[in-house]
């Protein structure tokens, strides 16, 4: 389909579009007025991760096209947890922990969006503002009547759990109703006309679109992005070392930069479109590079993605660290660092503490495979005691891409 609005052309050209509830209607609205659009983020951890980044970038593209991003923090829905495509119920969080997570997560959005009072300035709201005040019987009577249990059971996100004979609590089953109500409430409070999200949110988004039409007669729209996978078919953002966190206190600048630098050759173009602001003609030039030259494109990707999330200085520092570590054989200043105690630290324990392996058992296996090096010398004893003099540092490497520093004050 050919789009007339700047918004949908931009989203289409950069690969964000998977499904619409009404493509023509949204295209027409986006061509004649500012469209407020929202995405919700449940505060299940102190930081969002790379899996959330396409949604954050969608809000950024919405603003770049002259429309208004609404960031919805799930202080209310986070008390339940989205069951969509999960194998089991999320661990219930305390209200205090939810508030702490919300405060921690807020920071990252200020790097991607411009907040303020202007027509296209972003705003941030917390759905606890309205969900915490709901009265159960009036909510069932006024909102619950618009939902068919038969239809809710037909959504893939629910069917997956039921087909596997895995428990789906009544608490979780209500999540999709609350998310739909969020859209209705945002339509009323902020004239929100668009909800965006990943393809796993399609059923929840459709519910919200229909609820706004049935209750208020308001036309609103839904748009989802494709499921992001790597060229090898694995889910993007899932790494051996765990989640790729957006907050720097959860993951170092260097490790964040290195995640992008390690992109598969086949994924470079797609990631440049989705996760940077580079012009499309420049992206086409970079993704056409072949052989060793594609590494230059990966460095551009790492720098641009890190600049957006962590700032320009973080990107420069991480690149300098990579240069010192890989090309110069030294230790860059951004490498993850641990401090050895007065009695030193065992080699296997250091691998675990740096986050390079998940357990002592995995450390032993890596050491047995010859994958662990201390100051670029292969080590073979997990019980090796590493002792340092005050002010001394040593480099610990696991494989070709994981490097850290052991130091002593």
TrEMBL record:
GO molecular function, one term: ATP binding
Origin superkingdom: Bacteria
Cited PROSITE patterns: AA_TRNA_LIGASE_I (PS00178), S4 (PS50889)
A cellular component term, taken from the record's GO annotations: cytosol
Ranges spanned by the short sequence motif 'HIGH' region, renumbered to the chain: 43-52
Keywords in alphabetical order: Aminoacyl-tRNA synthetase, ATP-binding, Cytoplasm, Ligase, Nucleotide-binding, Protein biosynthesis, RNA-binding
Membrane spanning residue stretches: none
InterPro entries: aa-tRNA-synth_I_CS, aa-tRNA-synth_Ic, Rossmann-like_a/b/a_fold, S4_RNA-bd_sf, Tyr-tRNA-ligase, Tyr-tRNA-ligase_bac-type, Tyr-tRNA-ligase_bac_1
Reaction(s) catalysed by this chain's protein: tRNA(Tyr) + L-tyrosine + ATP = L-tyrosyl-tRNA(Tyr) + AMP + diphosphate + H(+)
Subunit: Homodimer.
Identification of the protein by name: Tyrosine--tRNA ligase
Species per Swiss-Prot/TrEMBL record: Novosphingobium resinovorum
Gene, per the UniProt record: tyrS
